[in-house]
Amino acid sequence: MRLEQLQAALRVAETGSFQEAAQKVGCNQSTISRQVKGLEDELGIALFRRQGRMKLTAAGERLLPRLRRICQEWQTACAEIDELLSGRQTELCMAIADSIGGCYLPAVLNRFQQQWPSIRLRVSTLGSDRALKVLRDGLIDLAIVMDSPSMTTGSGLVVDLLLEEEVQVLLAADHPLAAQKAIAWEQLSQVPQVVFKDGYGMQRLVEQRFRDLGLELNSCLELNSLDSFRGVVREGYWLALLPQAALVDARHDPRLVIRPTTEPRLSRRIKLVIPEDHLSLPPVRHFRQLCREAMTAELADLKAVSQLF
């Protein structure tokens, strides 16, 4: 059973004529007749009395309301798809890492909203694991997360590298290690550290670095808020390894200092992840382009600022 058969039967029922139905849909009469006959053969019963004007049989009367509903639902679905393809969707949903949302992304969001004022932006701050899960579940249009090859590769996903930024040490201004220009990894392993909660890419990145160096990470507190990181480190006992984007506000706090590590330096890679089928939507494509353009500029600005401190 095909949709055009249902549509042909509905047109004949509405016009009472194969010829008028054909004229209405812009085809020849034999095509309409063949489609209706095919539907009747599949159902095993006649839908029309073929005597003068076409009149519905009892089976046709039963089927007519459902034909209308099916054809109307199809028209509605086509209209909604057309809205998506023409960029007339009502909202754009995304999940992002906390530090990205506070540092690099505001300019992108602002530019997008100016260019697509009819679209509501819905932004959720999530850890990388959770962000990718809701993306795969179809609950959001895109995600901006930390790189993790096991999570950001696979069929159906388009992955863009947006930026790479150094991970540095945040500590209190009066911390014993604050006087050093760079802090060795061996020293870091001996100091209590604040780390991100499980499910955050930064936690895995830091833990892996210590394992690679044959050192033990002395993690004593797990958090997921940048404000909490700054507040706890400010007390002078703990320190934290954080990416540059998470250190912007800390640079203006006289009670905190930021120091690089010694070699080998650690960096994190931020990626934009989009389901391949979503790239057919103009707002998604445009947001992707804005990210590509803006992230490079934002990172350059951030590096310039970091050189002043």
TrEMBL record:
Annotated GO MF terms: DNA binding; DNA-binding transcription factor activity
Domain HTH lysR-type stretches: 1-57
Keyword set, alphabetical order: DNA-binding, Transcription, Transcription regulation
GO cellular component: cytosol
CDD domains found in the cross-reference section: PBP2_LTTR_substrate (cd05466)
Matching Pfam families: HTH_1, LysR_substrate
PANTHER family: HTH-TYPE TRANSCRIPTIONAL REGULATOR YBHD (PTHR30419), NITROGEN ASSIMILATION TRANSCRIPTIONAL ACTIVATOR-RELATED (PTHR30419:SF8)
Record-stated family: Belongs to the LysR transcriptional regulatory family.
Protein name (record): LysR family transcriptional regulator
Organism: Synechococcus elongatus PCC 11801
UniProt lineage: Bacteria, Bacillati, Cyanobacteriota, Cyanophyceae, Synechococcales
